[in-house]
Write a structure and sequence with these properties.
By secondary structure, the chain is an alpha+beta fold. Helix content is 27%, strand content 30%. Bound molecules: zinc ion (ZN).
Length: 135
């Protein structure tokens, strides 16, 4: 499936299939699930979130998008303007993935904290606890 880029200021209410909407101003991107279920997929952009790049053949998002919360449970990459399907993850893999994500964020915020405001580490630890508690 082909994915083209549309830069927007605000996310439109109705999304069209096959388009990755990116608002760099609000650090967010959105698209419709490529399986055709019609669900709106939001991917925040940022150092601990998704990274968006625009190549010659179209947009890419990394890491992969895993829609574990949806009935279709799709998992895919958007790479060079195409949907590349990935393997379905088991519950255990989803939990391991969430944990890795939480660790990555904690490390990032810890590195900020060295020069940043106090109290950040306590907030991050609290956030990681909540992530781990999620089932
Ligand atoms: Zn879907």
């Amino acid at each position: 499936m082909k994915i083209s880029l549309e830069r927007v200021h605000f996310m439109p209410k109705l999304l069209q299939p096959g388009i990755l909407y990116v608002s760099e101003e609000f650090e967010t991107a959105a698209h419709l699930c490529p399986c055709g279920c019609g669900e709106k997929i939001r991917t925040p952009l940022g150092p601990t979130e998704w990274k968006f790049t625009q190549g010659r053949n179209g947009p890419s998002l990394s890491p992969s998008v895993g829609n574990w919360h949806l009935p279709c449970r799709t998992h895919y990459w958007i790479r060079d303007g195409r949907v590349v399907w990935a393997k379905h993850w088991t519950e255990e893999q989803v939990r391991a993935g969430r944990l890795r994500e939480a660790q990555r964020r904690a490390e990032y915020f810890y590195s900020l904290n060295r020069s940043g405001p106090r109290g950040m580490v306590a907030r991050v630890i609290e956030w990681v606890r909540r992530m781990i508690a999620l089932k």
